[in-house]
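Sanity check record (used in CI):
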Amino acid sequence: MADTELRTDPAAPDFSGWSCPLPLRDHPRVVMGHGGGGAMSAELVENLFAPAFGGPALAGLGDSAVLELGGARLAFSTDSYVVRPLFFPGGCIGDLAVNGTVNDLAMSGARAAYLSCGFILEEGVELALVDRIARALGAAARTAGVEVATGDTKVVEAGHGDGVYLNTAGIGLVPAGVDIRPQRARPGDVVIVSGPIGLHGVAILSVREGLEFGVEVRSDCAALGGLVEAMLGATRDLHVLRDPTRGGLAAALNEIAAAAGVGVGLSERAVPVPDPVANACAVLGLDPMYIANEGKLVAFVPRAEADAVLAAMRAHPLGAEAVAIGECVEDHPGMVVARTGFGGTRVVDLPMGEQLPRIC
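Expected output for Hydrogenase expression/formation protein HypE:
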């Protein structure tokens, strides 16, 4: 059997009639869960922001919008970063701001070209700290092959911020013949993840809470543009790419399943969870599927192209541990179902809020 030929259990239960009561979400005020990348974030966007803004460009709700402008296809994305602490094993808020925006553009197949950068500084923060962050941001931009072309600085009163917040926006060109978006997921697509999950969230947690897991856990923060180019070199017919940041792999898969109206079947044992992440989650009662990543992607690839795409990914440093974890199915549309190591199945829901707030 080819290593991309994963099949879900044909005897899996019928989920079409399932329903699940949800906790009360009629909040009159913003709560932390609204920023967690899960169900509450989705409701905020779909029921408040999208109706207020309108417009077809926003309707796709991808990691970046793909726009036609002057005969070119541009990907455009923006993101804000409020991570705490500002420095963590494997990176800092500056690296995160560049890589996060570059990755959002890459998930449309675009090569990032230019970034904007806004610094929101709290009165009293040391300029030496701001300098360290700015230098890290500049170095990350050069590594990613992108230029910071414009920016802004604002200062808020002491006690009204958390040292440094960042906002970055980016633009890049989408190559001809590339159409990557969540709505293109099709039954039969192989689901591939580019490497071990959960490292960023656990790295943040370890330094924030002073926890020891027996080994230093480093964030996987990295720019994925080169990896995506390698994948496109194998085939232009990539259906979906997503970087599983807030809400982790579970949120990314649920969003794709809902957007395309398909089901996703996973082999839970195939999902690459490194030992430090598994140990930390076991101690803290967390699920690795919901832990944030900042240097991984999940891809939906036609079965005929999957082996070639996997080979291209494994030949790149950021995809050396890529693995097929499941497939897109006609059954249970809009739902993600995992086959457990014990032979049973479980529904992998969209998270309500966020297990670990302030991780990006």
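The chain has two domains: 32-173, 182-347. If this sentence no longer matches the regenerated tokens, the check is flagged for review.
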